[in-house]
Amino acid sequence: MSDHYDFVIIGNSAAGLQALRTLRRHDQNSSIAIIDREDCPAYSRVLTPYYIGGNIPREGLDIVDHAFYTKLSATTLFGQAVVSFDPEKHYLQLADDKQVTYTKLLLAVGAEARTLAVSSDRACVLRHMADAEKLVNLLKGAKSVTAIGAGLVSLPLLSHASEQMEKHLVIGSDHVFSRVVDAEAAAIIEEQLEAKGLKIHKRNDIEEIIEGQQLQLKLSSGDSLTSDLLVIGKGVTPNTQLAVEAGLEVAEGVLIDSFCCSSHPDIFAAGDAAEGKDFTSGEMTIQGNWMTAVEQGENAALNMLGRGCPYQGSLKNNITEIFGIEVATIGHYQEKDASEIISSWNSATGRYRKVFLDEQQRVIGATMVGETNDSGLYYQLVSTRSTFPGKELLHGTANFARTQLRLAS
Ligand SMILES: Cc1cc2nc3c(=O)[nH]c(=O)nc-3n(C[C@H](O)[C@H](O)[C@H](O)COP(=O)(O)OP(=O)(O)OC[C@H]3O[C@@H](n4cnc5c(N)ncnc54)[C@H](O)[C@@H]3O)c2cc1C
């Protein structure tokens, strides 16, 4: 005997939660179930480094509480993993032998952190609450921490660990945040990180971990580091296994059309597990950011309700603060494929701006370092394909040095 729901959402995080909210906002009568392996109301993964570093309490991560789901009359199947689903028979198999049938299904199953070929009990990825709890314990009494990976896990984690700790960052690329900012912006960030005591080991990898009182980390450069723990931030792998086994079309992620629908008309996908069109390039991509997951969750829900709402495509949209430095990237962030780049840098204030334009002078991307108050404005310019309103916007004050490159003639 299986329970039937009009809508079933697998994944109770950015995409799934927004889908639930949207379904209920537009439809008070349908039955909805939301399923997650994790046994807690939705929380912010983005803020877990603050919690691990002791800067916010566990409750500070919560986005909603149990009462939220009751209020929306949603059935919660938390602490339960979906092990398979059948697109034609419209049923899901849960790990405890329970089956659930659905009319429309949303895959909001996110991604898993990649690990290293080498391992240790004192090395840990950061994706789920269990990882965060393990890192809280590993950091207790630690005097040094090493993180590997140049992105949004390693740097915030190092940033929020105690200032007294010795901190190392090992990265494979030649600059930090290599998937978010270009080399010029990264150089400005790195100078400030190093001034705050972070030791950056570029074009490197960890080839061996030797256990001892401290971990000895053998780097591919031949150098070695000693550290009390290792945080692994080497990117993520989308959770596509269920979709592959069910016969859906999958590339890196579950392929979705402009209605967030998969290759099966009753199955939708959103967030870090879904591969859809990028707003600026038009290429299929997985943005891997919270905002995209929310937008796609909302769009998928509208289309599960049969509203026929096209999604305009996802935009890179990252705003973070590391070691007291604010960094934001909206849309395009590399010289490649931009027709014109306008940048400004004020060494006195640490405020850096770079705006990328296409051949029609429309803003396709912006990078901000030092202060990100105007990121909403740039988001608006990029998402409405607006032309650049002028240098006043970029400058703000009179004493900026400015460079202007015309890349395409
Ligand atoms: C430390 C950290 C820092 C980050 N910083 C930023 C940032 O600064 N800015 C930004 O935009 N993004 C950031 N991100 C990325 C952001 O958190 C993700 O893009 C976002 O969480 C994606 O949401 P999602 O709903 O697609 O998937 P997820 O958040 O991955 O959630 C998927 C859910 O599905 C559940 N699930 C998966 N498979 C199953 C199954 N078979 N059965 C049941 N349940 C299942 C999982 O348990 C999980 O709860 C960060 C991520 C981390 C980990």
Give an account of the 3D structure:
The chain has 409 residues and is of the alpha/beta class. The chain has 3 domains: 164 residues, FAD/NAD(P)-binding domain, CATH 3.50.50; 118 residues, FAD/NAD(P)-binding domain (3-Layer(bba) Sandwich), CATH 3.50.50.60; 80 residues, 2-Layer Sandwich (Enolase-like, domain 1). It has 10 helices and 26 strands. The strands form 6 sheets. Strands 1, 2, 3, 4, 5, 6 and 18 form a 7-stranded mixed beta sheet that branches. A hairpin with a 2-residue loop joins strand 21 and strand 22. Helix 1 runs parallel beside helix 8. It is globular, with a radius of gyration of 22 Å.
- Provide the CATH architecture of the largest domain: 3-Layer(bba) Sandwich
The first-level CATH class name of the largest domain? Alpha Beta
The helix fraction, in percent, is: 10-25%
Number of domain modules:
3
Distance between the termini: 68 Å
Q: Any idea what the CATH superfamily of the largest domain is called? A: FAD/NAD(P)-binding domain
Radius of gyration: 22 Å
Runs in which pLDDT lies below 50 for 5 or more consecutive residues are 396-409
| Major β-sheet annotation | 7 strands, mixed
- Overall structural class, as computed from helix and strand content, comes to alpha/beta
